[in-house]
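Model it.
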Amino acid sequence: MNSISNTWNHPKTSAAGVLIAVVTIGSVLSQQGITLGTAGSGTVVTLISGLASALLGLLARDPANPASGANSSNSTAKLGAWALIALLLPLPFVSGCSEKSVAQDIVNWTPALESAVATVDSTAALLAPADAPIFAAATAGFDAAATLLTAQAKAYLANPSASVLAQLQAAVVTFQQQVNASLLSAAEITNPASQKSVLNAINAVGTVVLAMLALVQSVSSKVAVARMASESTIKLAAVRPYMDESKAVAMVASHYGEPVEWARAQERQVELNVAQAGF
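Modeled.
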């Protein structure tokens, strides 16, 4: 009886609970490859999750009744927090998207990649004379890797076949390993100003490559992901101390045109997924 009375007395919170459950279950089903059929360019699962998220957002923005006092305000604040958590579950570059939309998202990151690599090319001139050669050697392969990854991304968008995907997988893993190696090399630079410039430049490239890796991972089979992970000898954990989360979050927020807190949750989830996969 208490459950029934609570539902009756707090319909908004109860509805939010149901919607949160729908979004959560939808996220899990998508991650397991369960689609329940197609709907437009997506799947039934992602459609239901998206509708539930939208309704939950409307509930969260519903203003509190001024006559209800502090308890109503606290309840609305908590509901808003839960709504944000639920809305963050179907992250744009983690799961639940079609191969075509993922391919487009990968290509959409390529201008940011080209810009970040161009910044790397111009950074050496800002370093102390003794540090410039170290940085140049650490990032020597970035231009070629970026060109190849961009080409493979566009090829996959044009033809999202298994063979083209395999080439894209190889390209993104190779570049990710180059970025990780360059981050470790940055530890050899002891000049504080030089190291700051070096890490800033490399992290910009690393953020884009990590996003692209997560996107490729989301459309790859478990066998393919395991193979990719086995080819990643420098793991994310080894370079985590040199990664700049604030820069990554700012880049993701700007790229997707979303709030910083949302981008921060995305970035952390991506890092967790990639690390759990063995990268």
